[in-house]
Amino acid sequence: MEKQFVFAGFGGQGILTTGLIIAHIGAMQDKEVTWIPSYGAEMRGGTANCTVKISDDLIGSPFVKKIDILIAMNQPSIDKFLPQMSDNGLILVNSSIIKEVPQKGNIKVVEIPAAEVCEKISYARGTNICIIGALAACTDLFDKACYEEGIRHYFAKKPQFHENNLAAFRAGYEYVAKG
Fold first, then answer.
1. What is the domain extent for residue 50?
2. What is the pTM of this model?
3. Is residue 36 classed as helix, strand or coil in its secondary structure?
4. Helices then strands (H, E): number in the chain?
5. Is the confidence at residue 43, as pLDDT, over 60?
6. Higher pLDDT residue, 162 or 82?
7. Region 122-129 average pLDDT
8. 152 CB contacts (<8 Å, ≥6 apart)?
9. Is residue 40 within 8 Å of residue 10, measured between CB atoms?
């Protein structure tokens, strides 16, 4: 198994952290992982993205050629990365911001209004973690417990955020799981 991800959005949306958390979870599951960040000159509000590869085998190149899973937090991310999607790929869309995703081949699009979902649990900062919950609900990459353990472990030095982050994860998971 090898999955190639792109996480993309505006700086300040937790894009790089989201990719790093997924890479971290993969490493915790004894997978081979790569994580490469990329961001514009102006951090908050500029463009940000990162690529992640997770594989059972050694990874020959850290660069993503065909995206299996795109997590898009804004419209420019869709516009930029849609052409690089693999034929049977998956796009997770923050529909709080993105209003239209053009159709391309057999790509599955899962929309989640992450800002509204997090507003209901009173944790506006958790939209990126909510998206991780959506990812967990619509893929079989790892089981739900692995994601929760990975989130706790990643934020181990910030225990004050554990409950809010896990609530955001679970809210995203439930939103997608209920369909």
1. 2-177
2. 0.91
3. strand
4. 6, 6
5. no
6. 82
7. 94
8. 162, 166
9. no
Cβ(50)–Cβ(72) below 8 Å: no
Quote the number of domains for the chain.
1
Q: Under a CB-based contact definition with an 8 Å cutoff, are residues 73 and 128 in contact?
A: yes
Q: Above 70 in pLDDT, residue 46?
A: no
Per-residue pLDDT, 45? 59
Burial class, 173, CB count within 10 angstroms (exposed 0-12 / middle 13-18 / buried 19+): buried
pLDDT at 179: 74
**Between 179 and 174, where is the model more confident?**
174
* Segments in the chain forming alpha helices (H): 15-28, 75-81, 114-120, 127-138, 144-154, 162-177
Which residues lie across from 150 on neighbouring strands?
none
Q: State how far Cα 175 lies from the chain centre.
A: 15
Q: Rounded to whole angstroms, how far apart are CA atoms 57 and 33?
A: 9
Give the integer Cα–Cα distance in Å for 87 and 37.
24
CATH code: domain of residue 119: 3.40.920.10
Which residues neighbour 107 within 8 Å (Cβ) at sequence distance 6 or greater?
85, 87, 88, 89, 90, 91
